[in-house]
Amino acid sequence: MFSGTLARNRWEFANNRLVMVEVKKIVLHKVELSRDYIKKNLDTMNQLKEILKISNNAYYKLLQERNTQNKQNLLEEYIKFWLRK
Question: Model confidence over 15-29: pLDDT tens digits?
Answer without folding.
Answer: 556 655 554 444 344
